[in-house]
Amino acid sequence: MTAVTAKRTTGAESQDSVPVFSSITPRRVVLDTNVLVSLYVFTDSRFALLRAKVESGEWLAITNDACFDEFRRVLGYPLFALAEEHQQTALEAYSASVMRNVESRQACALLPRCTDRDDQKFLELARDSAADWLVTADKALLRLARRDRLRGLFRIITPDMALTMV
């Protein structure tokens, strides 16, 4: 639940701020590594609003050890030439707002096989955590979205699509 401040008034009385709890459930999202790099390395990214949704709690970002470790590994790629301090900052920022080690809720549902075996873990995490969306720019994962074989489990969407649904 999300706490929201509301004003309680009866007309002539003073106004007091009281916490009111919203029953709105945050959208559950799995962000693949390429999206995380965009959000936590290139902080001026056009997808900054997605990061704001996660950090505000409006979206519940979900990860597990395998997906988090891939993000850690990718941050060290020579392509990015990130100093150790910048890598740590990105990891800490993501760690502060992500839910880790989620319980398996739908593990019995069969998933299609992704042509890129390294991406299968994101499909499994989205399924097992009952995610609403798997947000990715990965072509192999997006091909699975077009086949509509995940209906009833979760949607695979691009960051651009996520921006239109915020």
Descriptive key words:
166 residues, five-stranded parallel sheet, 7 strands, alpha/beta, Rossmann fold, disordered N terminus
Structural write-up:
This protein has a 5-stranded parallel sheet. A two-stranded antiparallel ribbon has the order 1-2. The longest helix has 14 residues, at 84-97. The chain is built from 7 helices and 7 strands; from the N terminus they run βββααβααβαβαβα. Strand 1 and strand 2 form a beta hairpin. It is globular and about 40 Å long. It is an alpha/beta fold. The protein has one domain (25-164): 3-Layer(aba) Sandwich (Rossmann fold). The model is unreliable at 1-15 (pLDDT under 50). Helix content is 40%, strand content 20%.
Biggest sheet descriptor: 5 strands, parallel
List the uncertain runs.
1-15
Q: In the CATH hierarchy, what is the architecture at level 2?
A: 3-Layer(aba) Sandwich
Helix content: 25-40%
The count of β-strands is: 7
Task: Please state the overall shape, judged from the principal axes of the Cα atoms.
Answer: globular
Compact overview of the structure:
With 166 residues, the protein is an alpha/beta fold. 40% of the residues lie in helices and 20% in strands.
What order do the helices and strands come in, and which of them pair?
Elements lengths: L1 E7 L7 E7 L4 E5 L1 H8 L7 H9 L2 E5 L1 H11 L8 H14 E3 L19 H9 L4 E3 L3 H9 L7 E3 L1 H6 L2
Parallel strand pairs: 3-4, 3-6, 4-5, 6-7
Antiparallel strand pairs: 1-2
Helix pairs in contact: 1-3
